[in-house]
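[job 4417] fold queue: 2 targets
>>> target A
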Amino acid sequence: MTELNLSLGKTKESNINRLSGGIKREQITDEKLKSIYDTVDVDKNGILDADEMQKFQETIMQYAKDDNFSQKEAGKFLKKSNIKEISAQELFQFLTEISGKSEDIESSSVIEQNGEKVIQIKYKDGTLETVNPDKTSVITTTDENGSKTAQTKDATGNVIQEEVVDSDGNKTVIEYKSGKPATITKTNSGDSKEIIICDENGEPKSKNVKKGLASENYIIVDGKEQLQSKIENEGIPAKEKKTTYTYNDDESITEVITEAGQETVRTSKDGKVLSEKITGEDETVIQRTVSENGVVE
């Protein structure tokens, strides 16, 4: 993008040093000025790409005299562009506003994908924004620790997904619904994966943890995790072990353990076994109970 050094009007109160592609329609604060924006935005996608901004800049320069864009020249531009009910001062305001917003943009480019235009905007702080033809976008940032964050937004600008990858390769993906977390998936650079399901308020309500051949399922109540079931050596019939947990009103816990054709039902409290029933594959039953004095019956 070539630089445009231009004085606006006789007072020379504003100077446009550089106009850059990547300015979005919603960034224009004055609703009235959006009629100018809409004229410049030829493809009507709500974002001024580098080509559109270049053409706009060149058109302004055609009307400017000696690097001065007076009210008279501004009026000619507005008339030729069929922009109605906008004064020269309002055009100057628009130019000043997009010039200011260009200050944060390092560059912008247009990429053709499947015959459609994808816009990439690189900001001076290192942020990279990709705007798709359907107006969804992805904003990528990298912090000082090397963690990379990619936010995906829908056409209205709401965040629908956030992905964070730290310098060790650990990844966290948050899926949003109605602006609140719906699922949170954490993948370790090793072999562990954690999936958290949230309620309609965005609060965690359940969690699944998988590492290798083992997995655990929790419910989350008032911020506290409660183990519901777990599987060890999953997928290996001779070694697979499944355990479910029931939390009783008397604060005891009942485990049902299935392993190698054998089922064990064990109830314990405060870490001490109260009763146990083992049913073998041949349906033989071994049952014992433990009294409060620790006597096995």
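>>> target B
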Amino acid sequence: MYIDRYLTHLTNVPPLTALLLLAAGVASLIWGWRVFKGLVVFDALLVGAYGGYGLGMWLEQPDLAVVLAVVGGVVLAAVVWPLMKFAVSVIGALLGSALGLIVWETIARQAQQPQLADMAWIGALIGLITMGLLAFVIFKSMVMVIMALQGAFFVASGLLAMAMRVEGLRPSVVAELQARPYLLPAVVLVLAALGLICQYTKSTEPPPAKK
């Protein structure tokens, strides 16, 4: 199940990264439309650093892994800045893919249809194509949606990563999410809806009068 893979990744998230995810998530939910460029660069830094570090560890060079993490983050952030609209579309496609996979698998397992659950890649493909294309067609609205989904996912991931660090709390968190796999996507969608409302409200506020 997706939840098992997700929780396994969270156990390896350092506390500082969890705090950064939480902070970036709150910023995405509340001010996503206004600061989305900075948040996209932050995403690029994370992905580039993760990829560089992974490459260094694959080469069995821990010291080199740190250098590659810094280089990877900086290079990817520099590449993303002039390609902002394309980068937003890519993030939307990835979020849509993850959301499609999770929703498909969750519904299939709740309906006790394991064969359908194994075809969750179809839901991922539908989400990827839909969100990626919509980001180009209705840019401003999709930026709000993407930032809301990203913020909700970051907040949930940051909080869960911190919870997984607490020995007495980890078993109950894992057991609860495994017993109710719909709980995580439900929380993410509720948070995203609140973030979308907040962003839309702020985007329609008149600019402050000049003195």
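[job 4417] complete. Note on B: The chain has a mean pLDDT of 84.
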